[in-house]
Design brief:
single chain; 9 strands; Arc Repressor Mutant, subunit A; elongated; alpha+beta; about 200 residues; 2 domains
Length: about 200
């Protein structure tokens, strides 16, 4: 027999779009942390919902061929940032990948954050949140903040003409006001490249 807490939790989850992520905190009006955690575990056992990572749950989207589809690392990272009211910026290979500068898919994805530093384990992969200074998170343009991190990863002396052109093509889609704001936050050699997009 499902408990009252289970029924309330499942009703709330079913009202959301499949693939939406939930945390224990989302259900605390239905019971204490312990009661909610137990109810979630029971729902996972009954295969009503899936445990995506420690403390993160979802009713997975279903693909007609592949079956249940797990949410991507970016979706999970954004959900955690939203819950913690923290800013996050993709770094390293993740930023390069997002801009098409690398086809390598990183096993561990790293985000800079002004929230808590932590690791989220997803099977063999990890999402790593690294605490960073406010300056590194002050960029307001989604494209220009990626560009700054990607170029830092490539390094001043390693960037090729082709990579520069790819970056400039992306930056032309950035909002001009945001781009001008973010250029001021970049190291001088990156500023020089970014200014060309204006």
């Amino acid at each position: 027999m499902p408990t009252n807490t289970e029924i309330q939790i499942l009703t709330k989850i079913k009202k959301a779009r499949r693939g939406s992520l939930f945390f224990i905190e989302d259900f605390l009006r239905f019971g204490s942390t312990r009661t909610v955690a137990k109810a979630l575990e029971r729902l996972v056992k009954k295969e009503e919902i899936s445990r995506v990572a420690h403390g993160i749950y979802a009713r997975l989207e279903k693909d007609p061929v592949l079956g249940p589809v797990k949410p991507g690392t970016e979706t999970i990272a954004k959900a955690i940032a939203k819950r913690d009211r923290a800013r996050i910026v993709p770094t390293g290979i993740l930023a390069l990948n997002a801009l098409g500068l690398s086809t390598q898919v990183p096993m561990n994805v790293v985000y800079l954050t002004d929230g808590a530093a932590r690791k989220i384990v997803l099977g063999k992969r990890k999402i790593i949140f690294k605490k960073s200074s406010p300056k590194n998170l002050s960029a307001i343009g989604p494209i220009s903040s990626l560009v700054i991190q990607a170029l830092k990863e490539i390094g001043k002396d390693n960037i090729t003409e082709e990579e520069k052109q790819i970056v400039l093509t992306h930056l032309k889609n950035e909002d001009k006001y945001r781009l001008e704001h973010d250029i001021r936050l970049a190291p001088e050699w990156i500023r020089t490249i970014m200014r060309q997009a204006l």
